[in-house]
């Protein structure tokens, strides 16, 4: 039995980060996900491909923090819905470069507007300076976690 007070556990930054993700993911699934038949991981993948076409699955895994299997499932779902095109990488035939199809671009355009509105709602009570500081802190945290995660997967 732990002698640590519950409030100490609830104050852990990691648990707060997980809670923020969960509290923001739930409304996504209920609104946007149902409307567009889109999972959260499919959206994460689309969001990156919308701004950085031609990424590989490995790059998507690195940039989203998702494991390779979750990225693979997201890509398969996007491909089934005809929202994704794969093209052979001319420098490495074992890899595919990923691009949104015209249908994927249309969904991306619709969802990104809602995502930006949601982000504005979430940060309405946070000053620009606080948001800039949070952004910098998160970048440092991501770099720290990524450097301690071991070597990236190939592909």
From TrEMBL:
Presence of the UniProt keyword Transcription in the record: yes
Is the keyword DNA-binding in the record?
yes
Task: Please state every residue range assigned to the domain named HTH marR-type.
Answer: 10-143
Bilayer-spanning residue ranges: none
- Keyword terms of this UniProt record: DNA-binding, Transcription, Transcription regulation
Q: Which domain of life is it from?
A: Bacteria
Which Pfam families does the UniProt entry name for this protein? MarR_2 (PF12802)
Protein name, per record: MarR family transcriptional regulator
The source organism is Variovorax ginsengisoli
**What taxonomic lineage is listed for the species of origin?**
Bacteria, Pseudomonadati, Pseudomonadota, Betaproteobacteria, Burkholderiales
């Amino acid at each position: 039995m732990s002698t640590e007070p519950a409030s100490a556990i609830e104050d852990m930054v990691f648990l707060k980060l997980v809670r923020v993700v969960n509290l923001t993911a739930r409304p996504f699934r209920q609104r946007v996900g149902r409307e567009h038949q889109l999972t959260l991981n499919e959206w994460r993948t689309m969001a990156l491909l919308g701004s950085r076409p031609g990424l590989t699955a490995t790059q998507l895994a690195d940039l989203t923090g998702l494991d390779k299997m979750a990225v693979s499932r997201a890509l398969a779902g996007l491909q089934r819905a005809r929202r994704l095109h794969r093209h052979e990488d001319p420098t490495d035939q074992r890899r595919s470069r990923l691009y949104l199809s015209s249908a994927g671009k249309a969904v991306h355009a619709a969802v990104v507007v809602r995502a930006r509105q949601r982000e504005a709602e979430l940060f309405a009570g946070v000053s620009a300076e606080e948001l800039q500081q949070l952004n910098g802190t998160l970048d440092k945290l991501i770099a720290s976690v990524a450097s301690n995660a071991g070597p990236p997967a190939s592909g």
